[in-house]
Design goal:
mainly alpha; about 55% helix
Length: about 160
């Protein structure tokens, strides 16, 4: 089982990579959204490691984090749980071109990833980074992100780059 520190170090590497592709690579919004989720996943796995927990399935992770699961020793506050769940959903959209809110069977529409989805991902990742820095007193980098749709979002840790 990977340790708390190993997961935090991987989250730091992912944040550096996110900033790099955001500034240096054109047309990779889908990858940026995916990196946001996997950064969050390492933060979550660091959190779970403090309880000596490790899960292989996303559904098990979400159950362990769910604030309504009274039996869970590792549950998160509501805002952070929603941030993580939303990042997972946005990542699935960017990786598989699906919208999990679309309940129509046989839908032939490809759901692409746009600036608005990156802005949402950054907002939710910022929420999780702020939580983990406060809860675990770890230092995670404050990255600068270029995204036109971020203008309407306030961020706690990250900064907006024009």
């Amino acid at each position: 089982m990977a340790t708390f520190e190993e997961h935090i170090n991987q989250a730091k590497r992912n944040l550096a990579f996110l900033e790099s592709i955001n500034h240096n690579v054109k047309d990779c919004i889908d990858w940026q959204v995916t990196v946001c989720f996997y950064t969050a996943l390492h933060l979550i796995n660091a959190h779970l490691a403090t309880f000596e927990l490790q899960y292989r399935k996303h559904v098990d992770v979400k159950n362990a984090l769910n604030p309504e699961n009274n039996l869970s020793i590792s549950k998160l506050p509501e805002d952070e749980y929603v941030a993580y769940a939303t990042l997972q959903m946005l990542s699935r959209r960017s990786r598989y071109l699906v919208n999990e809110k679309d309940n129509q069977v046989g839908t032939t529409i490809a759901f692409l990833t746009h600036d608005i989805h990156l802005a949402k991902s950054i907002k939710h990742l910022d929420c999780l980074v702020a939580f983990f820095q406060n809860k675990y007193k770890v230092s995670l980098p404050s990255i600068a992100i270029k995204c036109p749709d971020l203008k309407s979002h306030s961020l706690k840790i990250f900064s907006k780059k024009d």
